[in-house]
């Protein structure tokens, strides 16, 4: 099996859901895109590893191409570090790097949420409960709130029915049906997981939008500087967060 035929294991954004994968151009490649939040315990990574191992067994492949979007990059990179024998390649798109690598929060639209996650604030649970209500009753209001700091390119995606459908499903999962898993992933993200990035053995490809307001491009540069394997960084001119995901073609 050539690298261009390697099946994809997709790690969606946080917030987000499996339908994030529909925004990625993958051609005819087989894609496994599980719901990362669908687990019963407070430990996201064992569940992630189990889903990945099952996907490998079902694919019968010699390796998988792991793709992570946004905070899903944390899942992708930590998975690659834990499964060096079966992860053949890693692509991270609009990646949110470990917060320990720099003073990124002032440039991140979600900074208040991450600060609450670091403080283990009960206010965050109340906030997500309110967001869950909005996701059910007024998803347009919630989407406008989440994209308040986005630019014209990102907002132009609202005319794309596939994008709106993926986004709406991801909001329902994150703030509603799988809110506990979403909160556990946030808690995992705000810890220092930089040591695991250094352990990645598969080659890494990074795509990041020049004008991303969710994750500044400095995060992509920090990941590139941290890994010890061959790593390429493609900065998309005028690209933002989701628009960069839409622009990337795998395979």
TrEMBL record:
Q: Name one Pfam family in it.
A: Abhydrolase_1
Gene3D superfamilies per the UniProt record, alphabetical: alpha/beta hydrolase
Q: Which domain of life is it from?
A: Bacteria
Transmembrane annotation, as ranges: none
**Can you give the residue ranges of the AB hydrolase-1 domain?**
7-243
**Protein name as it appears in the record:** Pimeloyl-ACP methyl ester carboxylesterase
Organism, scientific name: Shimia sagamensis
